[in-house]
């Protein structure tokens, strides 16, 4: 870069506007590719945007803290959006009431499955104890999962990475997998997405239909609670 | 619209305060969701403006995970040292959880419906 360009770059890189704009553009590009692919779930807009931004930050040698100065405005909206999940939930309240017991049993079974399979597979493949503990709460929503990992002696930052990747895997594979195993009930599909892959799964479930979205948001909240209660108990029993 | 945005933020804030005060192992926004849900039950309906705002916030929910996703790159090195166990555990566990949860729910809710 010439001196002048360098000056402009340094100025822009220091302002939150650039990383905020790039975050939106990367996501829009991801969505465009998703549409172009005939809405193939494997062409996931979140994954594409993340990969593009990571490549860009690496090439320009920008650290995450300066990127986050701009991206935090997008990140902040996660809180209000989570609160807003109450709206589809309220609109589907009659369906939730009708299957309350099924919901509770399914969430507990799903939560147990998520924790035990994650721990067992990581252990069988020779992961370190710290890694195993960090993987245990991976299906819960990020702040809860990080809190559990910290409490157990895992690495909260590794847990945060595992949580995000779990969400992306669930969003990419969920719909086709559930169809493959003949799970067609929107309530069951939504609940599965929310338990297995928290908010990112819920974002995908909302695209299926409102019933799936409502059940997924509910499942995300219930699974956070179930994971927080179950993980410490399970590990005390088996570790 | 502004009123409803303030309402959503107030629910989140109340949720955060509740979590700090009671040390319940849940994120503030999830408690905020419960508070708004209870409010809607009391009111017996979703006001138009709130419906629009909520639909707007939720229509691009995936986008909101991008900054955290980029944060994953900070730990690329960490994942790299144990790539195989982490990747296999993450993918297989997520897929099995999807099937088990969906299957149990479908079985139980169909039975309840009969």
TrEMBL record, chain A:
It comes from the Bacteria. GO terms for cellular component: membrane. It is found in: Membrane. It is a multi-pass membrane protein. The keyword rRNA processing does not apply. Its main location: membrane. Keywords: Membrane, Transmembrane, Transmembrane helix. The lineage of its organism: Bacteria, Pseudomonadati, Pseudomonadota, Gammaproteobacteria, Cellvibrionales. The keyword Membrane applies. This is LrgB family protein. The chain crosses the membrane at residues 6-30, 42-60, 72-90, 102-125, 160-181, 212-235.
From TrEMBL, chain B:
The chain crosses the membrane at residues 29-46, 53-74, 86-105. It is a multi-pass membrane protein. GO terms for cellular component: plasma membrane. InterPro entries: LrgA/CidA (IPR005538). The keyword Transmembrane applies. Keywords: Cell membrane, Membrane, Transmembrane, Transmembrane helix. The keyword Transcription does not apply. It is found in: Cell membrane. PANTHER family: HOLIN-LIKE PROTEIN CIDA (PTHR33931:SF2), HOLIN-LIKE PROTEIN CIDA-RELATED (PTHR33931). This is CidA/LrgA family protein. It comes from Pseudohalioglobus sediminis.
